[in-house]
Amino acid sequence: MRSEPAHPGTGLFQQGVHARTHHVMRHHSMMPLPALSQVGNSPLSFRDHANGDAITRTGTRSRERGRDHANGDGDVGDTDRSWKTGCQSGVRRGPTVAEVTVAVVEAYADLAQRVLAGPALLGRTRLVAVDGPSGAGKSVFAAGLAEALAPRLGGDRPPVVHTDDLLDGWADQVTFWPRLEATVLAPLRAGRPGEYRRYSWVRREFLPRPVPVPVAPVLLVEGVSAARRVVAPEVTLAVFVTAPAGLRSTRAVARDGPGILPELRAWHAGEAAHFAGDGTEQRADLLVDGAPGFPHDLRRYYVRRR
Asked: Does residue 9 belong to any structural domain of this protein?
């Protein structure tokens, strides 16, 4: 839950709307009914389900190649419609309690509308920070939201900054932030366009040509530590994408080869320490499942855990 006070006059998610859900049943002997919790206090804090439909692709962003990869589609079977608020509820069944985990499938189009209805807190720009551990599916989520925002922004995709492009090698995992602040966030805060030089993971150096970041209604910043606490007052929506550690490692090795493992192990330890100290997941407005156990079309939908 966010510790910062709610932005005055917003309340964008006060009314529940239909959502498609998947229920995973787990039985525990005489387990007390878990309470439904309020999630987040920021301008786009999620309290209720939003419109969604279920239909997925999986994909990753290659640190070596610097582009998105996605594959696989599938249709979804029958789902239960629900007006629940919160991710878990308990249902008593005789001497036991069935804990119901609800996975909510939501449309990027609906999320795009809500982002644009939110306040611009970074100058004239709505900053969407997409955070989470390596290999969880952050770049796929950012791409899906950017595509959904494009027709609402006159056909132009909003700028997306990948923090991997700002790192000066593996050791610059979270210490890159002053570079992002000076070249991108500070100019946008003042109403001026920003720019940055992209790091080449092949050449192991920054490329000479700057990448422009125009002043736009929305900016997406995607990568480990993108939603860190220091930028929280200027973030319209903070997203945290999760996936099991084993799967995340498998994705990285499949993408970049087994030679990445020594650096990857150190990276995982570093990001875990950062998230623990920063409380990023707990403060996030939207918790996304980057590896749901049922198919959904990642081009149009995402799966919300909270």
From this structure: no
Residue 30 CA, distance from chain mean position: 35
Cβ neighbours of residue 213 under 8 Å, at least 6 residues apart? Answer: 159, 161, 184, 187, 188, 193, 194, 195, 196, 219
Total domains, the chain = 1
Q: Is residue 2 part of a domain?
A: no
**Tens of pLDDT along 105-118?**
999 999 999 999 99
Q: Can you give the length of the chain in residues? A: 306
Find how far residue 54's CA is from the centre of its chain.
18
Distance in angstroms (rounded) separating the CA atoms of residues 216 and 117: 14
As a whole number of Å, the CA-based R_g of the chain is: 19
Tell me the pairing of strands 235-242 and 286-289.
Answer: parallel
For the four alpha carbons of 35, 38, 39 and 45, in that order, the dihedral sign comes to positive
C-alpha 246/C-alpha 266 separation (Å) is: 15
Residues in Cβ contact with 164 at an 8 Å cutoff, skipping those fewer than 6 apart: 61, 63, 66, 199, 201, 223
Render pLDDT for 153-187 as a digit per residue (tens, 0 to 9). 999 999 999 999 999 999 999 999 999 999 999 99
Dihedral Cα 170, 145, 250, 79, nearest 10 deg: 160
Single pTM value for the model: 0.72
* CATH code, 235: 3.40.50.300
> Residue 169's Cα: distance from chain center in Å?
23
Residue 76 lies in a domain: yes
Cβ contact 118:236 at 8 Å: yes
- For residue 270, the one-letter residue type is G
